[in-house]
Design brief:
Blueprint: E1 16-19, E2 22-25, H1 31-43, E3 45-46, E4 51-52, E5 62-68, E6 74-82, E7 96-108, E8 113-122, E9 130-139, E10 144-146, E11 156-159, E12 174-177, H2 179-182, H3 204-208, H4 211-217, E13 221-224, H5 251-263, E14 267-272, H6 282-289, E15 301-303, E16 307-308, E17 310-311, E18 314-318, H7 325-342, E19 346-349, H8 357-370, E20 375-378, H9 384-388, E21 396-398, H10 400-412, H11 417-431, E22 437-440, H12 450-453, H13 458-470, E23 474-478, E24 492-493, E25 496-497, H14 515-530, H15 532-536, E26 538-545, E27 550-557, E28 560-567, E29 573-576, E30 582-584, E31 590-597, E32 602-607, E33 615-619
Parallel strand pairs: 12-13, 12-23, 13-14, 14-19, 19-20, 20-21, 21-22, 22-23, 31-33
Antiparallel strand pairs: 1-2, 3-5, 4-5, 5-8, 6-7, 6-9, 7-8, 9-10, 9-11, 15-16, 17-18, 24-25, 26-27, 27-28, 28-32, 29-31, 30-31, 30-32
Helix pairs in contact: 7-8, 10-11, 10-13, 13-14
Length: 623
């Protein structure tokens, strides 16, 4: 999400979400806002992307569901659709209409009224079809109401294709680089700006010159913060979707970096921001100066030139009108440009809930045509039901829900083992079997670093990292976490969120970094990369004891079983392991079946192939 220093407020839709001592961007910022949003959406004629199947294949019929709440007194509901990609219009030459049938009625105490449910079916379509549709309802007096989703959007679409999440994603370990703060070019030191939102001097050449470090760490996929020209240090306010910020280098520098990354068998992802631009983008300046400008439709003015749609009310971040055909074409063709011209491997998509699902249908069709093996995952801070609605138009999402639970269990201690296991089991079941990936992380550039949240306790960080790397989601490491990079002050300062606190320069001096933590991360990454059970296996808990802080689960895949156990208490705990022979996953020393785990410690073990090894120690150690 764009890093913009929003004021922390509970008014309107400000961008701060504070929960369990955390600070995380989100649209539904407070309980009151969440309730108001749900009430408004559910009371009307609602279609919240509820379709079956979510990701239709060629010739599969598509069932579309809608609901009419107390504020939508409709008697009949219709689905209007086209198969040529055009916008459905009643009476349009290519628009077809089918009736949705009443599928039941439920009482909703929250709304204090009845909700009527409807469903209708669109016949299966050939591969390559973009099926675009709208829903309308007619009241007893002949008034026509148009269905909207919870974000008040009324045009929906789905692409009929056979695209799958790229197979390489299950083996990926992603490293998130904030370009300005990672590494200057060879022979240079970081600059020392007076303020944290100044420029520290990271460059593309600096990344290239540190690829040996990254390869030795074990990561195999790099995700770079926005590279496009921008007036800010973070780059989420682009002035040109097809250029390179000169401070970072040139297009030749990027091509050299990509060539070296690919030569090493690694991949590269770029951050892409389709939701908004800088107010100094030439398109916006033209639109601002002249309401008749060809670029005026690229933005939404409610009172030209003073009032226009923005990203969370920030006037320097005007929101793109991606429902404008010209703007949509510019944004999508820009993404394809980076894929085709530079051979990047995909995008992390900033604030992906900003553009509509209809936009993402066109985006996904274009980028997958350019490179079917490319990866496209979104930053969407929404409930799991909303996340899953992006199946078929994105390859996956950042898993903010799991992030909060991991931080609550290991950093803050505001969640116990039973609560975490209950969430994790349900979370995995909810997403299992979908053509959709989750990407896990412990921290990022928009929140307090995990080590800061854990008050500098590296034991807690190691526990959280073990948990992250032994669950099924693809892991992401935020630059510097692996060497103990933290921050000087909390992000929350008075009424403001100072996000730059979590973006300090990378520690390259070996005498100042945490080399023990770095060695631990190397071993943990190496274990995941060679373990089929950790990357693709199933998970089951074997110990959940909130009273003592003991928690453990197994990951099984093929002939391999990995045991993961934690002690989230401040006292040593003895844990009984399943009755087979276990060896330490790092040292391969045999582990006692009654293992003692130190305070804030963990045990990583694997079922021994050779059952005859002697027990090396009965107490697990922190690595």
């Amino acid at each position: 999400m764009a890093a913009v220093n929003p004021q922390a407020s509970t008014n309107g839709m400000d961008a701060v979400f504070v929960s369990m001592s955390d600070f995380i961007f989100g649209t539904l910022a407070t309980d009151d806002l969440r309730l108001a949003s749900l009430r408004q959406a559910a009371a009307g004629l609602l279609h919240d992307q509820t379709i079956l199947p979510r990701d239709p294949k060629p010739q599969q019929p598509l069932t579309i569901h809608a609901s009419a709440g107390p504020d939508a007194a409709v008697n009949d509901v219709f689905i209007h659709y086209t198969t040529d990609g055009s916008l459905p219009e009643i009476g349009g030459g290519t628009t077809r209409t089918v009736a949705a049938m009443r599928a039941g009625t439920t009482w909703d105490t929250f709304l204090w009224g009845y909700v009527r449910h409807y469903s209708g079916e669109i016949p299966g379509q050939p591969e390559g079809t973009i099926l675009r549709y709208r829903l309308s309802g007619v009241t007893a007096d002949g008034q026509r109401l148009w269905a909207q989703d919870s974000m008040k959007r009324g045009v929906f679409s789905v692409a009929v294709d056979r695209y799958r999440v790229p197979a390489w994603v299950q083996d990926a370990v992603i490293y998130h680089i904030f370009v300005d703060r990672f590494a200057p070019s060879y022979g240079r030191e970081f600059a020392s700006p007076q303020k944290l939102d100044g420029f520290f001097g990271g460059t593309l050449r600096g990344i290239t010159e540190h690829l040996d470090y990254l390869a030795d760490l074990g990561v195999n996929t790099l995700w770079l913060s926005p590279l496009m020209p921008s007036p800010s240090h973070h780059g989420y306010d682009s002035t040109n979707f097809r250029g390179i910020e000169p401070r970072y280098g040139t297009k030749s520098d990027l091509k050299a970096l990509i060539s070296e990354i690919h030569r090493r068998g690694m991949r590269i992802l770029l951050d892409f921001v389709p939701n908004h631009t800088s107010n100094t983008h030439p398109f916006f300046e033209s639109a601002l100066a002249n309401p008749e400008s060809p670029y005026a439709s690229y933005y939404t003015f409610t009172n030209h030139p003073d009032e226009y749609d923005t990203f969370f009310g920030v006037k320097t971040l005007p929101k793109l009108n991606n429902d404008s055909p010209a703007a949509r074409r510019y944004v999508i063709e820009s993404a394809v440009y980076w894929l085709e011209e530079f051979g990047i491997d995909g995008f992390r998509l900033d604030h992906a809930q900003g553009p509509s699902h209809d936009f993402w249908t066109d985006y996904y069709t274009a980028v997958k045509k350019a490179n079917p093996d490319s990866l496209h995952f979104g930053e969407i801070v929404e409930p799991p039901t909303t996340l899953l609605s992006y199946e078929g138009v994105l390859d996956g999402v950042l898993d903010f829900n799991a992030l909060q639970m991991i931080r609550r269990l290991f950093a803050y201690g505001s969640l116990d083992a039973a609560g975490f296991e209950q969430f994790q089991a349900a979370h995995e079941n909810f997403f299992t079997g979908k053509n959709f990936s989750r990407f896990s992380f412990l921290d990022n550039h928009d929140m307090n670093r995990f080590l800061w949240a854990a008050q500098g306790d590296t034991r807690r960080l190691k526990q959280a990292a073990v948990c992250q790397f032994t669950l099924g989601a693809t892991p992401i490491v935020y630059y510097g976490t692996e060497v103990g990079l933290s921050q000087q002050r909390d992000i929350r300062q008075g009424d403001f969120g100072i996000l730059e606190e979590s973006r300090l320069p990378m520690i390259w001096d070996a005498t100042k970094r945490d080399n023990d933590l770095l060695a631990f991360y190397k071993m943990l990454i190496g274990l995941r990369k060679k373990s089929t059970a950790l990357r693709m296996g199933t998970r089951s808990a074997f110990c959940v004891d909130p009273a003592t802080g003991r928690y453990g689960f197994l990951r099984r895949g093929g002939s391999e079983t990995i045991l993961v156990a934690f002690n989230v208490s401040d006292e040593p705990q003895v844990i009984d392991l399943p009755s087979v022979t276990w060896v330490d996953a790092f040292s391969e020393a045999q582990v006692s079946r009654r293992a003692t785990i130190e305070p804030r410690g963990f045990l990583l073990a694997k079922q021994a192939e050779n059952q005859g090894k002697k027990t090396d120690s009965q107490t697990t150690k922190q690595v």
